[in-house]
C-alpha cells in the first residue's frame, strides 16, 4: 500500500511540473489532489498506529485478567486447605486400617466460590494451567462427596445408638448398626486415600500456577 502511494505521489509530482504553465485553476486542482493523497497517506499511518496501540492494550488487559484469576485461584485453594487442615488433618492422619472417622466435617454446596464464578476466564488460561486447576478441584469435590457420605452415616449411627438404648435386645437393630459401621470403615479408608490424592493434586497444581504467574508477570514488565 505504501509503495503504491509513493508511486502516485511521484506521478503527481511529474504531472504538477507538466501543468505548471496551464491556467491557474488547473494548477490549484492538481495541488489539492496531491495534498489529498499525501494527507490520506498520513491518515492511514495514524489509523494503523492507533490499531497497534489498541491491540497492545487489549493484550495487556487480557494478561492482567489471567494473572488476577490465577492469584485468586491460588488464594482460594490456600485458604480452604488451611481451614481444612485446622479442622481435619489430625483426624485424617489418625485413620488406621479398619478404623472409622467418627468426626463429621461440615461441607456445603458452594465451597469453591471464586472457581465457579470465574469458570469462563479459567477456560482461557494456558492448557497446562487450566488442566492443573481443574484437576485440583476435581479431587477436592470427590473428597467433599466422601465427607458428605460419612457425615450421613455418622448421623444415622448416632440415631440408631439412641434407639438401641431403648431396644437393647433388638438383633435386627444391632445388625443394621454393624452394617453402618462397616460402611464407615470403607468411607474412612476412602477419605484418607482421596485426601492424599487431593494434596498431591494441589502440590502439582500450585507449581504450575506459580510458574504461569511468573511468566505473565515477566510479560507485563
Question: Helicity, in percent?
Answer: over 70%
* Annotation field: number of helices: 6
What is the oligomer described by this structure?
single chain
From the N-terminal CA to the C-terminal CA, the straight-line distance is 34 Å
- General shape: rod-shaped
Major sheet: none
CA-atom Rg in angstroms: 35 Å
- By DSSP, the count of extended strands is 0
- Low-pLDDT runs of 5+ residues are none
Give a written overview of the molecule.
The protein has 221 residues and is mainly alpha-helical. It has one domain (66-220). Helices cover 84% and strands 0% of the residues. It contains 6 helices and no strands. It has helices at 2-18, 24-93, 113-117, 119-122, 127-166, 171-220. The longest helix has 70 residues, at 24-93. It is rod-shaped, with a radius of gyration of 35 Å. The two termini are 34 Å apart. The model has no long low-confidence stretch (mean pLDDT 85).
Looking at this protein, list some descriptive labels.
221 residues; mainly alpha; 6 helices; rod-shaped
Write the layout of secondary structure elements.
Blueprint lengths: L1 H17 L5 H70 L19 H5 L1 H4 L4 H40 L4 H50 L1
Helix pairs in contact: 1-2, 2-6, 5-6
Characterize this entry briefly.
With 221 residues, the chain is an all-alpha fold. It contains 6 helices and no strands.
Amino acid at each position: 500500500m505504501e509503495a503504491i502511494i509513493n508511486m502516485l505521489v511521484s506521478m503527481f509530482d511529474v504531472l504538477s511540473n507538466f501543468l505548471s504553465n496551464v491556467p491557474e485553476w488547473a494548477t490549484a486542482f492538481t495541488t489539492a489532489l496531491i495534498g489529498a493523497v499525501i494527507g490520506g497517506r498520513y491518515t492511514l499511518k495514524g489509523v494503523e498506529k492507533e490499531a497497534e496501540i489498541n491491540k497492545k492494550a487489549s493484550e495487556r488487559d487480557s494478561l492482567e485478567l489471567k494473572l488476577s484469576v490465577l492469584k485468586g485461584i491460588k488464594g482460594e485453594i490456600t485458604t480452604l486447605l488451611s481451614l481444612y487442615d485446622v479442622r481435619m488433618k489430625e483426624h485424617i492422619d489418625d485413620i488406621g486400617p479398619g478404623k472409622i472417622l467418627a468426626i463429621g466435617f461440615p461441607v456445603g454446596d458452594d465451597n469453591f466460590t471464586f472457581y465457579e464464578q470465574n469458570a469462563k476466564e479459567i477456560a482461557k488460561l494456558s492448557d497446562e494451567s487450566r488442566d492443573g486447576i481443574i484437576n485440583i478441584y476435581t479431587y477436592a469435590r470427590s473428597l467433599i462427596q466422601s465427607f458428605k457420605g460419612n457425615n450421613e452415616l455418622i448421623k444415622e449411627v448416632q440415631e440408631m445408638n439412641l434407639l438401641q438404648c431403648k431396644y437393647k435386645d433388638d438383633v435386627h437393630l444391632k445388625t443394621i448398626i454393624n452394617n453402618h459401621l462397616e460402611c464407615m470403615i470403607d468411607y474412612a479408608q476412602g477419605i484418607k486415600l482421596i485426601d492424599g490424592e487431593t494434596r498431591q493434586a494441589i502440590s502439582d497444581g500450585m507449581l504450575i500456577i506459580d510458574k504461569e504467574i511468573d511468566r505473565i508477570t515477566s510479560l507485563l514488565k
